[in-house]
Design a protein that fits this description.
The chain is of the alpha/beta class. 48% of the residues lie in helices and 15% in strands. It has a single domain, classed as P-loop containing nucleotide triphosphate hydrolases (Rossmann fold), CATH 3.40.50. The chain is built from nine helices and eight strands. The chain is globular, with a radius of gyration of 18 Å. The structure holds 2'-deoxycytidine-5'-monophosphate.
Length: 241
């Protein structure tokens, strides 16, 4: 018999700017699952390299440094806070410096091997999970019963980023942001290990013309349709279709 307490993993992959993190966190809350932000783990690896003056393309040295470092989430906060050697690194992993360094760091095979191992270990301890990244449905959890690929037009993603930056009081040039997004898409999807791919059999959702609420509702609907008996009964106060 299927029980709403058995292991259940939903993967969400896609390029930068599709709103994956917010979508995955909100979906996890609505479905009563935990949330894993694997981009934050790669960002922490990039921060570790920067702080220890390790070249950002020296995967072997970064993986060695990672091996003697604890990288754990504090699951009591929502979304879970990432602790690198016990230090809350949330304020430092989204800076421009880390964002620039993380693409080459995440292309290193030694770093990816270590991260994939840690992500599977996290899933053993937290088996009811919405996990988001670039390779979650294709490499890390290919047997997950629901694998989603979020996509959005690069121009729309650039406009969203500009709006975010301006809302935070920064000056933002749309043309250069669009070029940076296109460059990151290219690097993420052409790297040799764990490239950004649409997982075979994944459900593709184009978010170009949907707001956050509409994306989360679409995914919640999909999850309940496919995995109904494996999920807790919906709290109708928060479910909107
Ligand atoms: O989603 P994000 O922007 O926080 O991801 C940061 C970087 O990490 C981005 O360059 C893609 C990379 N990444 C990855 O290679 N594999 C993942 N599972 C998650 C993120």
């Amino acid at each position: 018999m299927i029980s709403p307490t058995q292991p259940l993993i939903i993967t969400i992959d896609g390029p930068a700017g599709t709103g994956k993190s917010s979508v995955a966190h909100m979906l996890a809350m609505r479905l009563g699952l935990e949330f894993l932000d694997t981009g934050a783990m790669y960002r922490a690896a990039a921060l570790l390299a920067i702080e220890n003056s390790i070249p950002i393309d020296d995967g072997e040295s970064i993986a060695t440094a990672l091996a003697s470092t604890t990288l754990v989430f504090d699951w009591k906060s929502s979304p879970p806070t990432l602790l690198l050697s016990g230090r809350d690194v949330s304020p430092f992993i989204r800076t421009a410096e880390v964002t620039e360094a993380v693409s080459p760091v995440s292309a290193c095979s030694d770093v990816r091997r270590e991260m994939v191992r840690r992500q599977r270990e996290i899933a053993s301890a937290h088996p009811r999970l919405v996990t988001e990244g670039r390779d979650q449905g294709s490499v890390v959890f290919p047997d997950a019963p629901l694998r989603i690929y979020l996509e959005a037009d690069a121009r729309v993603r650039a406009q969203r980023r500009v709006a975010q930056l301006r809302a935070a009081g920064h000056v933002a040039d749309e043309a250069s942001i669009l070029r940076a997004i296109q460059h990151r898409d290219h690097v993420d999807s052409t790297r040799a290990v764990g490239p950004l791919r649409i997982p075979t059999g994944a459900d593709r959702v184009d978010t170009s013309h949907l707001d956050l609420e509409a994306v989360v509702s679409t995914l919640e609907h999909l999850a309940r349709e496919r995995l109904g008996a494996r999920l807790p009964i919906a709290n109708t106060a928060v479910v909107r279709h």
